[in-house]
Prior knowledge:
Chain A: InterPro entries: DUF1468. Chain A: Keywords: Membrane, Transmembrane, Transmembrane helix. The structure holds three protein chains of three kinds. Chain A has helices at about 5-30, 45-65, 80-105, 110-120, 130-150. Chain A is mostly helical. Chain A folds into two domains: about 5-65, no CATH class; about 85-150, no CATH class. Chain B is an all-alpha fold. Chain B has one domain (about 5-495). Chain B has helices at about 5-15, 15-35, 40-50, 55-75, 75-80, 90-100, 105-140, 145-155, 155-160, 165-180, 200, 205-225, 245-265, 270-285, 295-315, 315-320, 325-340, 345-350, 350-380, 390-405, 410-430, 435-455, 470-495; strands at about 185, 190. In chain B, helix 1 crosses helix 19, helix 2 packs across helix 19 (about 350-380) and helix 4 (about 55-75) runs antiparallel to helix 17 (about 325-340). The longest helix of chain B has about 35 residues, at about 105-140. The N and C termini of chain B lie far apart (about 65 Å). Chain C folds into two domains: about 5-120 and about 250-320, D-Maltodextrin-Binding Protein, domain 2; about 125-245, D-Maltodextrin-Binding Protein, domain 2 (3-Layer(aba) Sandwich). In chain C, strand 1 (about 30-35), helix 2 and strand 2 (about 60-65) form a beta-alpha-beta unit. The longest helix of chain C is centred in the last third of the chain and has 22 residues, at about 295-320. Chain C has twelve helices and eleven strands. By secondary structure, chain C is of the alpha/beta class. At the A-B interface, helix 1, helix 2, helix 3, helix 4 and helix 5 of A face helix 10, strand 2, helix 12, helix 20 and helix 21 of B.
Amino acid sequence: MTERQVQMRLGIGALLAALFLGLYAIPAWVSSPSNVGNVVLSPLFWPYALAGLTGLTGFGLIFSGFRSDRDGAPLGEPDGEAGAAWVRLAAMAVIMGLTMLLLPRLGMVLTSMLVFVSTAFLVRTRHRITAVVCAVLVPLVLYAFFAHVAGVAIPQGDVLRLP
Amino acid sequence: MSFVDSIAAGLSLVGNIEAFLALFLGVAIGVIGGAIPGMSATMAVALTLPFTFAMQPITGILLLLGVYKGGIFGGAIPAILIKTPGTPASSATILDGYPMAEKGEAGRALGMALWASCTADVISNLSLILFAGWLASFALSFGPPEFFTLILFSLTIIAGVSGESLLRGALSALLGLLLATIGLDLVYGTNRFTFGDPNMMGGLNFIAVLIGLFAIPEILAMVWHPTAHVGKARRLGKNWVSFAEYRRSFKSIVRGSFIGVFLGSIPGIGAAPSAFLSYSEARRTSKNRENFGKGEIEGVAASEAGNNGVAGATLIPLLALGVPGDVITAIIIGAFMIHGLQPGPMMFILNVDIIYGLFIGLIVSSVFLFVIGSVAIRGFKYVADVPKRILIPAVLVLCIYGVFAVNNNIFDVGVMFVMGWVGFLMMRFHIPAAPFLIAFILGPLLEDNFRQSMLMSGSDPSILVRGPITWFFWAMTFVTIIAIVRAGVRAVRTGPAFGQKPEG
Amino acid sequence: MTFKTLGAICALSLGLAGAAMAEYPERPINMVIPYGAGGATDISARTIAEPLGAAVGKPLVMANVTGAGGATGSVAVQNANADGYTMLFARVGSHSVNPAMKATLPYTLEDFRFVTVYEINPFACVVSANSDLASMEDVLARAQAGELSFSSSGVGSGPHLAAAMVLDAFGLEDAANAATHIPQQGGGAAATAVLNGTADFLCTNSSALAGFVANGQMRALMVTTAEPVAGFDAPTAASLGHPELEQMVGWTGIAGPAGLPDDVAAKWAEWMEAAAADADFVEKMEARGSIIRVMAPEEANDFIQTQYETFRKLVDDLGMRIEG
């Protein structure tokens, strides 16, 4: 992406967000009592003000996008093999989603072990055996610390219940 | 009782091995606790509290103060090494500390963090001892209108941490302000963007947002491009900071310390805004301002001075007024009360020996912090040598544990993940994360104090200019905004330098 | 409530459920504190955890789950398994003021089963020492002139309701709106607001105010208990002719999810009796101005229900219910 593309895309995004907030999100999801004395005291005032400012910033971004070079240098380094990168990113999203599902069921220790292994292999670590050993040890050490030193009620699973 | 007598009385209280041992232990616990993301200084203090019940009052309180001070410094260690702030106060340290670690200069960054922290600690303690009474009465003249203007001024920091493009910084800040509106409304108690979920009613957990915004995008970037780091030197590098660098940053450190003292003595602000303000002031006035955000050692110094400067000063409202300045001092005040001590003006008359005992202990704590900090840095430095593709999953697991531990809530882990994606998108679009964070901290304060002012005055806006303090901050705000606008206009005139800077 | 009834309940439950649940507790019990570290609930909970842990015989794992005036932590327990391994430190704010005031609260009193209330906190009403308000009459007069403001630790918190209740009892018309409510983020900020003149008046836990009163920074005008409170040189509500305000007291109790088995509740009654007998515990709590009064499960439920109904009626009369 060039500077121009970044500014334009962000600007359009900000404008759309402001419209969405102002027209739908704030009326639907912010409740305000009927007996508000003054408009500046209403719970709606601040969100609307922010939505307005977001819109203004959106205009500013589009304007500065128009001003900048049409074919400026791209920001950031180019990413090779973008296809594989997207797949890995999607896999990471799945890992995170599964983590949320498994945490209450398997408990934090087992889930973390799985997270560790899958993430380490997702980033294609060169130290496979170390990764597996760490995947077992790190969650156990953290469990010992948080549960027994810090006294935190780390979620226990149905399968495995650590002392 | 004369001054000398008071000191003698204080000395007799702390002049035993037990008190110093407690202090030393406290600093050590604090540094370790602060260095574990999610543990944070607050939790370390809360966990230590029950152990102080059985101790002598002065020993117990010194233990807690040691944990507090150690914790604020300890937060810098993971901030620099793994881009995960150990406590919210150290988030400004990331801005330059982590780039330094990426360049293989983690040792220098950590060393500077320690030196700046200890210097600020000394300044903060001396301010407490010398100006407690004066600063306390000043703090009491801060009502909602004064707060509102102070926070409005603090929001101008956003310009200082926006990096390449001011507009993208503003967008980031607005996003932070919007997300901070989630939860129950302060004045009417109605729901805002909560979708009826009780987990959302309390608002998004600050630490979850913080870690999600800084640590998780780093993991996602790794997933996106697993070999980006190969070939970069990521070791502890040159092992220690040089005295010349310390001298060069000295002005920023002192300025940061006083910003910390000032903001610390006013209840309700806390260490994170102070670190950001100090950072942005250092950047504004530094010769090396171009290098800020890319691994400038002065940035680390300013940020760490800003947050440690708060640590001693928060005791000013605590001791002089009995008012806790933040969550940590609220816990410490509990410790006073358990021992039958009631902080406040009377304490300076009834328990003057304890007050002076605390003062002596505080001064010693700066020395302890230096010693323990040096050891801790040497201990933690091996983190920099761990292969990055082993480190990253470990950081992820650590974040899951830490974020859960903050509020014992699995929902917060989800918040962290979602914020991680937000942060990753922001990174892809070159939107800086720091303005988001500042806005997320200050936004609710701004809104609440504005509405409280309006309630006080019956919606009469003239209350916002009710006294010299408000005038002062209005003036500061206008001066800063004019300076920002002028800098922006100049940059646009001189061409593409403004808003164009490729970065990897 | 006597030892005999308690003993009978225990004996009965042990006899009935002996084999099935005799081993409760067989593992550590999670105790959720719905407020932050260092607050009144937290300190109270951690103080009783010591003798209570000894009585239980298994560790008690304390977990602060904060947010939304105690609602986040309460919901965590509401949704937990009713097996007695997840219990809640319930508080006046989360379990009688909030349900009375907030229509959108995700739980009701029916979702919980109380096993005890062990601590009562008198409420005190204070003004700043610099204030020219010297008595409740002065406060009322200023309120009637429409110039009184009061602080609280948030909308729907104990201090919010308490101020309205007190002003209403003293005869202020439309007490919810006639005086200006300036909510703050938390109890510490509410007291600071009175100190720095943001608000005139505050009614809250006496323990939160004792330090300021002792230091001469605040002046107490009234306490809500039947007996005067040590350290507060102020008349009781009854002596000012308003004994109905004695309902306005803080308390801390322990509750489980609604389906908590009888034998678990009985166990708790037994443990609480033992824990509250600990002299060290009583001394620590009384030093902070609390009154130790251990209620058995039935008594605790009645106590909370009565307080809730009083508050609910007041809230409806004054139109203070939060619907949104």
